[in-house]
Amino acid sequence: MVLYLGYAALALIGLYFTVGILKISGEGLAKLGYENNFIQEGFSDKQEEAFGKKIKNILKGKKGNDEFDEKRRDEIDGINDLDGYDEVVEMMKQNVDTQIRSMLQQAILNNGINDEKTMKPIRDYKQIADLLENYTL
Question: How many CB atoms lie within 10 A of CB 93?
Answer without folding.
Answer: 15
